[in-house]
């Protein structure tokens, strides 16, 4: 009996987004950090994970540099086999940003733009600056800016200038419904000594300590844009003695501070792909804002935030779905698969969702369930749609064959999925997970 792709959340009005930021001080994380991040993300049922690093200097010059990075490799291995797909990564010297999306939401994901912005030494050096990306989920546009601003307690004005420089240099930021500025923003505590700060922390007087926070003062006095920030209830994230949890380092007379921050703002704007359309209302509720209370190999703690994003305009219909013969099949014979264009795709958001134009360069990849990235395919075949537009009045079913000789040779007991890839690197559909059955005679080499 034919098996269709799982029902997509056509009316999902809430997205759960997690943001993690860490200045690694060019060190390799303890495995307990990665394990803790993995358990928190999976236990909370996160839909989108944004992970930012600062001072993570990897060897440049190779297209595999990001894959070889020990932190990102541990992160990839932690989520291997889970239901999160890496859809974006970007890198500027020591600043890295990675985005994961739940596989069932990948057809709703569309990258709108990305950029790297240097601010170190008047823009000549990338040791300070930001990596930026903007994407749509449904019709809600999200911008993520991972920044590392200039240091030194007295450089408040320069940090403010760098924020303006980053935001004005990245136009997508002002076209988004939901924008996040996060990372090592390097704002410090002032008008307070190291010992006074330690005493307030010992007495858990966080509110008094926050009265000396430079960033909050800059926002309140309109020196920088009026970002929102969840309530801070965790201890300062800097400057710690490495491999300790609450032992702060006074060797350079640096007062503990919340250098690592996650700020956000919302705006009811039309979607960028339809600028004359209706404004998209968005509400964001911070769920948790804290740091990992673990021994750290850096002098910064890992800071994270969870958000619930609400909007009726998250509703969206995928343009097509896979129809498979069964939930499992033998590799000894070719597999006939059908693609069905959805008849109701024009009815979901008719003023915003335009019918996709399919290209003869579109292709269908076979992936392991929970693959690390959408480029991790085992084999592929070209799409049968061949540059047709989705017309709901026409016959919307197309067939293709996956040759048995292209399937994986060795059984591993795992599950697989089919992805529909467009020529412009978007994913329009993901099939339900299925298994492959093997026999000694029927195994085939992967071409």
Automatic annotation (TrEMBL):
Instruction: Please name the GO terms that the record assigns under molecular function.
Output: phosphatidylinositol-4,5-bisphosphate 5-phosphatase activity
Gene Ontology terms: biological process: phosphatidylinositol dephosphorylation
**Domain Inositol polyphosphate-related phosphatase as annotated: residue spans:** 13-315
Pfam families from the UniProt entry: Exo_endo_phos2, SKICH
Membrane spanning residue stretches: none
Tell me the protein family, please.
Answer: Belongs to the inositol 1,4,5-trisphosphate 5-phosphatase type II family.
For this entry, the protein name equals Synaptojanin-1 isoform X3
Q: Which organism is it from?
A: Oopsacas minuta
